[in-house]
Structure formats: C-alpha cells, structure tokens
C-alpha cells in the first residue's frame, strides 16, 4: 500500500513540562559569547567567499586569460542539409579561425581563434524545438574553452566574408562599442516601451545583438565570457521558457527576458545589422555589402534547405576568394 504522505505519528503527546533553568547564569553567558563568535566567523567566511559582484564572479577567481580570444560557435543540422553544404560551412569557420592563429606579440600559436561545432540532437532539450541547441552549444563552448574572451554564435545559414575583421576589435572593443551601440532604443521594434540604457558604456557590455524587421535576431551575436555570461545562458535556457511554446522558440524567449529582466538589459547592446549580421536580401533587414564581416541567408530556411544551398553558392565563391587574397 502506498501513501501520498507519510503516516501520522501516534497522537499521544507528552504532558507539558515547564522549562527549568539547568545552567547557571555564568555558563549561559559564556555560551552566548561563543555563539556570537561563531556567527561572526561564519559571516567572515561568507564575505570572503561570496561573489564579488564583478564581471567574473567569485572574489579571487582568475578572469579568462583571453586564450583563445574568440570562439566561433555554429550548430549544424545534418539531417536537413547536404554534406557538401555543411562542409563549406565548417571550412569557412575553420579558415577564419586559422587566419587569426596568434595574438600580436605572442610567440607561437598562443591565443589562436577556435571554431566550435555542435549538431542538432547533441543535447537533451527536454522536448523543446531543436533551435534551442544554439543556447546549449554556447554554454558548451564556454566549458570547452573556459579562458576564451568572446564567443560568437553564427548561424549555419551564414558565412564569414571578411577574414581581416576580428571580433575583439570590430565589435567588442570598448571605444568601438561606444560608437556602435544604440542608446534609448526600443528593444523590440518598432515601439517597445523597454529601451536600451542611455548610460551604458562599451566597457560594461557583455552581449551584442542586432535587430531585423521582426525583432531581435539570434542568428549572429557575440557574448563576452565571464560569470554574467553563464548566468545569462542559464536564464535563457530556463525550463519555463523552453516549455512556454513561444512562436519563435528561443528568439521570443530572449525578447521576453530582455524586456523583463533589467540584469540582462543592463549588459546588452544593440548594433546595426551590418556590423555582424547583414542579410543576403534586404526584404527583412539590412542587405550585405562588400566589406561586411558576415552574410546571413536569413530567408531561405523558410523555403527549404535546397534554397539555402543554391543561394549560398555565389557567397561561397566570394569568401574563398577573399580568404585566399587576405
């Protein structure tokens, strides 16, 4: 026989006995002093061990060394796209990483960029759509490269076109971000009452997104490594958001988080699309032009993988030529 709750104990309570003073007053006083000293010690331990509130978390924890300076993360759907197309995507990321194989002033290949690939189906999403893989893959990349400085997520329907541009200079450099980020700007266009912070400085930004005509875009964004990044990804991947059945899954979940959680908005910058997320067609956003760091085939997925592969051919030729000449 199974019980929903433990069976009750026997209902025969002991008779009430008034408390008596068993300890002399002096002994009670000493115990009080010991108890207070113990509490003071625990408080000291807490103050030493608690998170410092800074970007990298616990006091005394070594911040990321910046090796590698950036990791490019891409999620591939091997059941949807052909082997030839995905090989071109992999080649694009690997060659870009190899172009930035060492940090200036460093001997050898220390600090080279890295390319990180995950596949749809690699992680347990607890029934959520496969597009949520991008969030888990970012978290996995931070675990694999705990000393990296930045993680750049780039959709499989995108190609890096300008190998000369580096994420840490082109996007995340504080002085550059000060001029790039949109302040007092609606988080979800066109008229969200929640806007980016007017006083935010580039040095305090931990994640950079763009917008298209539909809202925030999750196809290309940059995240700075640190304790806040882990908090952000854990929040975004929270079970309540995965189970809510948003129309656009992780994208609409992100828009909800940004508008309702100031701790996220306080670290977020929105930049123009062509900074990291230009589109192959201007129907739904800013169109790619020569010199932009990347191009996304944003609309082909709605038609089918064959459309993406056909549209990608000219861009594959372009980036290969650009990489050879760089």
Describe this protein with a few key phrases.
326 residues; alpha/beta; Spore Coat Polysaccharide Biosynthesis Protein SpsA, Chain A; 6-stranded mixed sheet; 12 helices; disordered N terminus
Task: Give the secondary structure arrangement, pairings included.
Blueprint: H1 25-49, E1 51-54, E2 57-58, E3 70-76, H2 83-99, E4 114-119, H3 133-144, E5 150-154, E6 158-160, H4 167-170, H5 174-180, E7 207-212, E8 215-224, H6 227-236, H7 239-242, H8 249-260, H9 262-265, E9 268-270, H10 273-276, E10 278-279, E11 294-296, H11 300-303, H12 305-325
Parallel strand pairs: 3-4, 3-5, 7-9, 10-11
Antiparallel strand pairs: 1-2, 5-8, 6-11, 7-8
Helix pairs in contact: 2-12, 3-6
Keywords: Glycosyltransferase, Transferase
Organism: Trichocladium antarcticum
Region (Disordered): 1-22
Question: For the report, how would you describe the main beta sheet?
Answer: 6 strands, mixed
> What is the helix fraction of residues, given as a range?
25-40%
Question: How confident is the prediction overall: mean pLDDT?
Answer: 83
Per DSSP, what share of the residues sits in E-state strands of 2 or more residues?
15-25%
State the name of the first-level CATH class.
Alpha Beta
- By secondary-structure content and strand pairing, the structural class works out as alpha/beta
Region (Disordered): 1-22
InterPro entries: Glyco_trans_34, Nucleotide-diphossugar_trans
GO molecular function: alpha-1,6-mannosyltransferase activity
Pfam families: Glyco_transf_34
């Amino acid at each position: 026989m199974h019980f929903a709750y433990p069976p009750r104990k026997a209902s025969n309570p002991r008779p009430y006995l008034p408390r008596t003073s068993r300890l002399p007053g002096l002994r009670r006083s000493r115990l009080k002093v010991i108890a207070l000293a113990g509490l003071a010690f625990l408080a000291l331990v807490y103050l030493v061990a608690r998170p410092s509130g800074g970007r990298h978390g616990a006091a005394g924890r070594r911040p990321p060394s910046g090796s590698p300076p950036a990791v490019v993360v891409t999620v591939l759907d091997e059941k949807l796209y052909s082997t030839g197309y995905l090989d071109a995507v992999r080649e694009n990321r690997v060659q870009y990483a190899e172009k930035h194989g060492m940090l200036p002033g460093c001997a050898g290949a220390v600090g080279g960029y890295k390319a990180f690939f995950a596949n749809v189906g690699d992680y347990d999403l607890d029934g959520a759509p496969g597009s949520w893989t991008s969030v888990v893959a970012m978290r996995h990349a931070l675990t694999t490269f705990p000393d990296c400085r930045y993680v750049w997520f780039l959709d499989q329907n995108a190609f890096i076109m300008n190998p000369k541009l580096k994420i840490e200079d082109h996007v995340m450099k504080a002085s550059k971000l000060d001029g790039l980020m949109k302040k007092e700007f609606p988080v979800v266009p066109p008229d969200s009452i929640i806007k980016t912070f007017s006083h935010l400085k580039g040095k305090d930004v931990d994640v950079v997104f763009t917008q298209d005509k539909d809202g925030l875009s999750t196809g290309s964004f940059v995240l700075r490594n640190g304790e806040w990044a882990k908090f952000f990804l854990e929040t975004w991947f929270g079970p309540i958001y995965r189970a809510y059945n948003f129309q656009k899954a992780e994208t609409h979940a992100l828009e909800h988080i940004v508008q309702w959680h100031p701790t996220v908005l306080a670290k977020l910058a929105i930049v123009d699309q062509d900074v990291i997320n230009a589109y192959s067609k201007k129907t739904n956003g800013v169109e790619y032009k020569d010199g932009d760091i990347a191009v996304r085939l944003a609309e082909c997925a709605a038609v089918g993988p064959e459309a993406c592969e056909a549209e990608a051919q000219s861009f594959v030729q372009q980036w290969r030529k650009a990489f050879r000449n760089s």
